[in-house]
Design a protein that fits this description.
128 residues
Length: 128
């Protein structure tokens, strides 16, 4: 929760693409048209903020309990996983392999956490 939440909040508060981000992706496949790097930054911020909000909703709804349907938890894990994969891709294409590996570890741990938390997936599709 804090990983996605703090990252999204700092991106929103900063309200502009940092210079290091522009430099890192300048000339890469992400820089395919003018403004593409800025759009990438905004897209990542939106994904992180969405994951954060969904996690908060899941906590407020008490979805950490086994007897409660995981209506918000499932998409929260999915969006978090997608976000980590996108971040790994970005680090990989700019040859930031140590950072890519760290983000890959986050992605794997998120996947494993999702498997544990969502082990009773049939509750997700039940209407009560």
């Amino acid at each position: 929760m804090t990983t996605m939440g703090l990252s999204a909040i700092f991106k929103i508060i900063g309200f502009e693409v940092p210079e290091w981000f522009s430099k890192q992706f300048s000339g890469s496949m992400i820089d395919i048209f003018p403004g593409a790097i800025s759009l990438s930054w905004i897209f990542i911020a939106i994904l992180e903020f969405t994951a954060f909000v969904l996690i908060l909703l899941a906590i407020v709804k008490g979805e950490f309990r086994d007897d409660v349907s995981k209506k918000w938890t499932h998409p929260a894990f999915f969006i978090t996983e997608i976000t980590f994969v996108i971040l790994v891709f970005g680090q990989d294409i700019t040859h930031q392999y140590e950072a890519a590996f760290s983000l890959f570890a986050y992605a794997v741990l998120t996947y494993l956490a999702a498997r544990v938390v969502l082990r009773d997936n049939d509750k997700l599709f039940q209407t009560t």
